[in-house]
Amino acid sequence: MHQRPPKKFVPVPFTYHQEIELGIDSLTNLGSGVGRVDGWVVFVPFALPGEKVRARVYRNDKNCSHADLMEVLEASPDRVEPLCPLFGDCGGCQYQHLGYQKQLAWKTRQVGELMKHMAAIEFPVNACLSTEQTWHYRSKITPHFDQPRDGVIGAIGFLANGQRFRLVDVPQCTIAMDEINAALPEIRAGIRAKAHTFKRGSTILMRATGDHVETDFRATATERVGGLTFHFLAGDFFQNNPFILPAFTGYVAKQASAGGARFLVDAYCGSGLFALTLAKHFEKVAGVEVSETSCEWARKNASANQIANAVFLTASAEHIFSDINFPGPECAVVIDPPRKGCTPEFIGQLVKFKPSRVVYVSCDPATQVRDLKLLETGGYRLADVQPFDLFPHTRHLECVMTLVAEPQPVSLI
After folding, report:
1. What's the pLDDT tens digit per position in 168-191?
2. Is 93 a catalytic residue?
3. Chain centre to alpha carbon of residue 252
4. 289 is annotated as an active-site residue
5. Which of 38, 195, 312, 364 has its CA 20 to 30 A from that of 288?
């Protein structure tokens, strides 16, 4: 029986659920294979470059189509057996079927392609860095469940691949830390046992901290990075691959201090990760954060780690430099904004402040490249691009871009 097409389905160039054969040339930064049929672009999740596949079309857009992978007719030599039996259905991972070294190579390439296509910038990208811990690395996961039906809770897990509502039941997660997987059965059973108390669906927090797994969003969590200890609210943001953090923060420190700047501004400081791991390289450090509670944690962390040369200020991103009394040209600035990147107002005041170098850390290279164009227009030159694979087997990456201030022309008048 043929499924009826969705109401808004456009039947050109393919009919609904038409099966097509095509070769895959590359990967998007969302993890889908990209192929062409008579020059027409088709995106096929879980297909790999170099493969010939059979795919079933489910959507036609203005300049491309989207199709589900039905069969791999000629496999890539880089295709490997996924470790997780839920891979392909669970939307948490995109790359478990791709050999790990090739994952790193594609992430490196994708950063370069984003720079070229979005900003017309061609610049060498350093090879994406990772750690030996490529499985069981996540210190935090947040499984969900829907409203109970007839007093029974269904799937407890994550959204299905490419779907907005259906959850996949996840009893174990191959990228979550061993401590989390050990605690999962009991926590899942506990949620199901009190199904009658839930009027709607909910999200479960599981964060490995110290010697246990914390489920209370308001509890205090602890993470060690190098020789420093950080405390923060368990539900708040903190980079959740602890295995790579010493190398990651060490690299940011190297880039920020390379020009000999005396002062550091950490413009989205959170609970102090970069400000405090970098403090030993500078005379004084100022961390700025929109959240007063995060600022308070940063102050406590500075005190607990006996770091006396760091201060933390609460300010909105639009007025971040108003209370900074460091001379801009003697400053390095680290920015690690949310996924949406920086506002033009923030970049405007950053350029006006004129730090000698800017180290821009991003979890979304697309918004980072958008902001890179504004920084280059404001007188900054790209000096280094370094991707880090904080989330192996997923499409996500962190990218560190280092920019230096162009020398101002000397007036002879």
Report:
1. 999 999 999 999 999 999 999 999
2. no
3. 16
4. no
5. 364
